[in-house]
Amino acid sequence: MEGKPEILTIPGQWNISYQYAAGVTGSEFLRRLRDEKRISGVACPRCRRVILPPRGFCDRCFAAVEGWVDVGPGGV
């Protein structure tokens, strides 16, 4: 390999434990999916669109979302 440094590898195992927090909106989405078997998005009051996967704000206009909207198996 000309011009590229050799990649150094060291074999071994790392035992690393971690926890992931989905946040308030993500946790509610996962709870609805698990307990109620429903796919739900959140509604943007400014853009009037349904956001899925849900987040706490609209990624288009940055408005805080309001309320949950159930979506069918066809999606949004």
Task: Describe this protein's structure.
The model has no long low-confidence stretch (mean pLDDT 91). The radius of gyration is 20 Å and the shape is elongated. Helix content is 18%, strand content 14%. The chain is built from 1 helix and 3 strands, in the order H-E-E-E. The longest helix is centred in the middle third of the chain and has 14 residues, at 23-36. The protein has one helix at residues 23-36; strands at 39-43, 50-51, 68-71. With 76 residues, the protein is of the alpha+beta class. The chain has a 3-stranded antiparallel sheet with strand order 2-1-3, covered by helices on one side. The chain has a domain at 23-71.
Show the helix and strand layout:
Layout: H1 23-36, E1 39-43, E2 50-51, E3 68-71
Task: Describe the structure concisely for a colleague.
Helix content is 18%, strand content 14%. The chain is of the alpha+beta class. It has a domain at 23-71.
